[in-house]
Amino acid sequence: MLKIKQYYQVLFIASLFCFSQTGMAAQFQDFDNLEVHYIALPSTFLQPDIAKKYNIKRSQYNGLINISVLDKRNNNKSLSASLSGSGKNLLGQSEALKFQEIKEGDSIYYIADYPFLNEEIVNFNIIIKTSNKTNVLKFQHKFYIE
């Protein structure tokens, strides 16, 4: 039983980087010596036990943002960071993102949930603070209800 749970945990983390709403590729942005990977997807993509473990509300109206900060100078090793930010829809309604840090072995991930409506386009503005620099990640995502 323990091996099955470990399998799902690894699958959860890996899936957040492998799949997006529109295809099979995660997105990333370079910032000097950092590579920041990000993805947005519906929370229903997660298995119920994984969502429960990380206190993520599974709902057809709840999205999940996942971000990983990698150090390009150190073989893309995961870095600890402080993340904050918001999502704003095209009507100008803004929702603050509350990130939680997840550590799985040598990997560090930051996840936050975001409520959405069907076919809602959201502009994300995320501040990433590492030990020596602050960067701003901006991206847009269109959410769909399954």
Automatic annotation (TrEMBL):
The keyword Signal applies. Residues 29-146 form the DUF4426 domain. The keyword Signal applies. Residues 1-25 form the signal peptide. Gene3D superfamilies: Domain of unknown function DUF4426. Pfam families: DUF4426. Keywords: Signal. This is DUF4426 domain-containing protein.
